[in-house]
Structures are given as C-alpha cells and as structure tokens.
Amino acid sequence: MDLQSILLSGINGRRPLIIAGPCSAETEEQVIITARGLASKGIKIFRAGIWKPRTKPGGFEGVGMEGLIWLNRVKKETGMYVTTEVANHNHVVEAVEHDIDILWIGARTSANPFAVQEIANALKLVGFEGPVLIKNPVNPDLELWIGAIERIYNAGVRKIGVIHRGFSSYDKKLYRNLPQWHIPIELKRRIPNLPLIVDPSHIGGKRELIASLSQQAMDLNCDGLIIEAHCNPDEAWSDKDQQITPDVLSYILNLLVIRDTKQTTESLTELRQQIDEIDAELLSVLAKRMRISKEIGQYKKEHNMPVLQTSRYDEILIKRSIQAEEMGMELGFLKKILEAIHEESVRQQIEIVNQ
Ligand SMILES: O=C(O)C(=O)C[C@]1(C(=O)O)C=C[C@@H](O)C=C1
Fold first, then answer.
1. Considering the chain, what percentage of its residues have pLDDT values greater than 70?
2. Which of 293, 320, 334, 341, when mutated, tests ligand 1's pocket best, judged by the most ligand atoms within 8 Å of its CB?
3. In this entry, which stretches build a coiled coil (predicted)?
4. Which CA distances in Å does 287 have to 22, 148, 276, 355?
5. Complex ipTM above 0.90?
6. Whole-prediction pTM
7. Which of 130, 197, 243, 266 minimizes the number of CB atoms within 10 Å of its CB?
8. N-term to C-term CA, the chain
9. CATH number for the 266-353 domain, one of 3.30.565.10, 1.20.59.10, 2.60.40.10, 1.10.630.10?
10. Ligand 1 and 89: CB distance under 6 A
11. pLDDT for the residue 53
C-alpha cells in the first residue's frame, strides 16, 4: 500500500503519537474543560465521540451534531487537532463540513463491510484525504480488518492508520476486550508502513490497566496511543471506569519507557544467527515428526484404526508438561504448540486413511 504519513503539521514524529479526550462529548463545558486540561499537558490531538453506537438501547447515544461545534471551539481555543467517530454517510459529510481533522471508524462499524463501504463512498464524495483511523472489528478477524482498510484505501484515502482496541469476548475477567496481540502484529507484518495506535482504555476497560497496556504497546513498537481522558471521570456519562483525568494521563505518559533504538549491534546479529540455526533445527525435527505421523497414519489405515487416539494424546500432553516444567517453560505456551502439532498430525492422517 502506498500510504502517506498521518502526522498533521506541527506534530512531531517521535513515538508515541498521543490522542486523548473523553469517550463522549457530553456538554460544551465538559469538552472545553477537558480539552484545556489536555492542551496544558502538551496533548495535540483531542478525541470525543458524538455519535455513540451503544450495545443496548437506552444508553447515552451521543450529543450528535451539536458536538461538532464544541469540537470546533476546542480547535480555536487550544490549537489542538480534533477527531471523532463516523459510522455512516451523514456523519462523514457533517464531520468534514465542520472541519474535523481526523476521522475514526469504530469497531462495530469496521465489522460491517456495507457500513465501511458507505463511509468509503462518502469520503470519496466529499474528497476527504484523511487521516482516517480504522479500529479493529469487534471479532478477531484480521481479513475483515484488512478488508476495511482496503475499502478506505480504494476510496483514495492515503493517510490511514489503525487502532487496536482489543476483541470482544464473553469472558471479561481481566480485560474488557482481549488484546490478542498476534492479530495487530500480523497486520503490522503484512502492511509494515501502516501506523498502529493502541487503545488501552478499551482493551483494559479499567483505569488501573492503562499504564501497563500503554507500556506493552510501546514495547511492541506501536506508533501511538489513544486514551480516554475526562475532566471528571467518575461522573462520565459513558465508560467511566476506563477514563482518567488529564493529570493522570500526563503522569502515565511521563513514566512510559520508549525503546527507540533501531540499529542492530554485532552481539544482536550473533544472537539472531543462533535463532536462525535453532529454527532450522526445529523445522527439520518437526518435518521428521510429521513423517512418522504419516507412517502411523498408514498403519491405522491398514489396521482399520481411528485416527484420533485421545488417551495417547493425553499421555503426550502430561509427559511433555512435566518435561517443560523441569525446563522452566511456560505451560500455556507448550500446550499451544502441542495442540497445533497434534491438529496437523491428525489432519494429515485423515488424508491418508481416506486415500
Ligand atoms: O499415537 C498415535 O496414534 C498418533 O497417530 C500420533 C498422534 C500425535 O501426533 O502425537 C496423532 C494422533 C493421535 O490422536 C495421537 C497422537
């Protein structure tokens, strides 16, 4: 993808790019007080939702158009850039007409190709060049996320970024939305020049998790953070548990450790060589295991045995777990590997017995 920088003029390119502001614009006063607080902490991009897709009817659905005027006041009074969420054709037209600098597409919208296409068409119609930030779809589907990016790109927008806000799940014990970091990591691998902004407020769903998730995002070399900030979080009309004051935000940002060195040293090159060699060994051992598994498949075919042998699989899991523990390996990690190997082994044997 031939993408252009999402950095607007006057914003420096040092990581992390910070976007902050309330979940929702509630009143003009709340918007202005929060914006002033953030501007005084050096924040350059102000976010506020004015059209809010709510899980259930009856929740606060945003102030609508009126909020665009408040955002304009923020621009004039503080000099910050402003961004809001758009979910349909009218939102795009209104937001662009009111000089909103950056648009974002929410997670419920990016999960719906019809809605994303409608937005893409509207962007083309009004000639908005971006930046447009595309949140991951609520469901952990990388292709759907890439599809949304492509739709916006095909509308002629070149200033595109993505926001990782985690993935919805039934289990909300620790996180509100599971980070599933492998998905944004794979996206970054496929489209390396696509800026990746992390939303620790929505991933964590709790104030206490914002600092650690932000640090994690920086350690994973993500480009920016979008964090919900409110002048009076406890009284927020939406998502109050995950909003923080501008002071707390500033405190968290000051504590972030940014690892920025890109150069590789001789000792790192040497260690990477060792990894290359070990990976080559791993591959040949894996290939050997698959050959043996195929032989067993042949045996099962000849002796009319079912492919899946749960007691043997169970024995393998238990034995390897004991070994792994002795070696100081993480058991969850080992289990994932063994499951993947077993799944592939079973798949290959099914092919053989059905030949
Ligand atoms: O032991 C077997 O029967 C195998 O085919 C090997 C294997 C494995 O790959 O570990 C594969 C399938 C069975 O469910 C159990 C184990």
1. 100
2. 293
3. 261-288
4. 53, 37, 17, 21
5. yes
6. 0.85
7. 266
8. 43
9. 1.20.59.10
10. no
11. 84
